[in-house]
Amino acid sequence: MDRQHTRISPSWAFFLVSLAVILMLVDRNSHYLGYLRSALMVVAAPVQRAAALPSRLGQWGMSWLQTESSLRQKYQRVVLENNRLRARLQRFNALEKENIRLSRLLGVSRKLDEKVQLAELIKVSLEPYTHQVLINRGVLDGAYIGQSVVSKNGVIGQITTTTLKTSAVTLLTDPNHAIPVQVLRTGLRTIVYGEGVDDQVKIPYLPRQADIRIGDTLVTSGLGGRFPGGYPVARVNRIVKDPNAPFLLVYARPSANLDYLREVLLVWHDQASSPVAKDALPLSNKVQNAN
Amino acid sequence: MQTKVVPWHLVLVSLVAALWLTSVPLLKSLQSFWPDWVLLVLIYWNLTMPSRVGLGFAWLTGLVVDATQFALLGEHALEYVLVMLLAGYFRNRMVASSGLHQALLIFVMLLVSVIIEAVTATVLGRNLVFLNLLAVPFVGALLWPVFQYLMRRLFQFRQVA
Fold first, then answer.
1. How far is Cα B35 from Cα A43, in angstroms, rounded to an integer?
2. A115 partner at 20 to 30 Å CA-CA among A69, A101, A138, A159?
3. CB of A132 within 8 Å of any CB in chain B?
4. Is the CB of B128 less than 8 angstroms away from the CB of A129?
5. pLDDT for res A290
6. What is the sign, positive or negative, of the torsion defined by CA atoms of A231, A236, A240, A243?
7. Which pLDDT score is estimated for A202?
8. Which CA distances in Å does A83 have to A93, A94, A117, A271?
9. A3 touches chain B (CB under 8 A)
10. pLDDT band at residue A7, thresholds of 50, 70 and 90?
């Protein structure tokens, strides 16, 4: 081995350590380092995609092993579900038109239709304390920082970093994530916070006499302009009533199955603020007659 | 004077491979026993080519790892720089000693890296499973002899005039 007597300069070491600490403080308390993170992800994202390859190959291999009969069954189920959803959608269209009429009557401005785009998960964060995932849509696809991401069962989070072709999504359960919600049953408005625990979010600031029950569904309230309203977020599963505490502590389970995410949807909520991807589909209105 | 070096592109290849290895998804139960390959590779290069792979390089690599792991920017940079400092102090001892002694020194270095992680996590208010963190130095020390041998075989030194 090369035996060199390289001196370690203490001032260089001190400088690097201080720089690292400053970077951490800045990154924790602000978003100024967003560009730096995006730049670093240009290097990191291909490696992450490559790291996801083994499991994708495994899944691909498994899909080859599916028999024709099981595929046929799956297809039938999907057709049935599709028909059921289209029936519900007609009712939804009617309700939406009624809602528009009533909003106009009340003089309330009507929110824009939302457009969605499908995205696939490339990687789930391995660190036990950050809850982020990487998806295969980036700036070139029209994704933007702050964009809401939902899965078929509910909101999963929002995009916090973008590169050209990938984005990092911070999940609901991340300790740095907060989302304004509304209790579906009562209309009570509050905020749901992540706390770094899988499958759990908390609502820490409800007054003791607030009307909330186990089983209550929480949907996005649309306040704050970030998340469009009406998407399921979580279901209350535990209420802690400590007589000495000024607030109720409520815990809820996210509606989206955060452990088994594969495909998610990016939602374009306010089209005035960012360009919509060309292949994004509108959520409501005419149902395609595809047979 | 002739020096033996490994060309830069091979060093980068080893780091990218290490990054890939660390990022491969594993069963959650096995996750804590999977070493930080990037750190091990950095230590190896610092031992064998200290003039090329030093504190600054470790700092930059740490930043890239931060981006890959969705961690706070600077977290791994801090950890890697401090561990590299220790590696620098241990270098002469490492080079002159046997496998067991080397593994022991690696154990100490990884213990320091784990302590830094734990302190960072506590300061930032994250919940952490300390028992899992403790596995890291043991696994790293056990792997070190084989790892070092593989690295030497895979990345041969060339003579440079």
1. 21
2. A101
3. yes
4. yes
5. 38
6. positive
7. 93
8. 15, 17, 21, 30
9. yes
10. low
Predicted confidence band of residue A52 (pLDDT cuts 50, 70, 90): confident
- According to the model, what pLDDT value does residue A176 have? 83
pLDDT of residue A19: 94
Distance between CA atoms of residues A281 and A33, nearest Å: 32
Task: Please list every residue in chain A whose beta carbon sits closer than 8 Å to the beta carbon of residue B75.
Answer: 20, 24
Per CATH, domain A116-291 is 2.40.10.340 = yes
Query: Could you give the CA distance from residue A254 to residue A232 in angstroms, rounded to a whole number?
Result: 8
A residues 147..176 contacting B (CB < 8 A): 168, 175
Closest approach of B83 to chain A, Cα-based (Å): 11
| pTM, 2 dp | 0.71
Are the beta carbons of A159 and A146 closer than 8 angstroms?
Answer: yes
- Give the best residue of B70, B73, B114, B117 to mutate against chain A (max A CB count within 10 A): B70
Q: How far is CA A35 from CA A38, A139, A230, B28, B60, in A?
A: 5, 13, 32, 31, 16
C-alpha of A36 from chain center: 22
Domain borders along chain A are 10-111, 116-291
Residue found under tokens 């920082």? A145
A13 touches chain B (CB under 8 A): yes
Kindly give, in sequence order, each residue whose CB lies less than 8 Å from that of residue A109, ignoring residues fewer than 6 positions away: A103
Q: Is A34 on the interface with B (CB under 8 A)?
A: no
Q: List CB contacts (< 8 A) between B29 and chain A.
A: none
Residues in A touching B20 (Cβ below 8 Å) = 47, 50-51
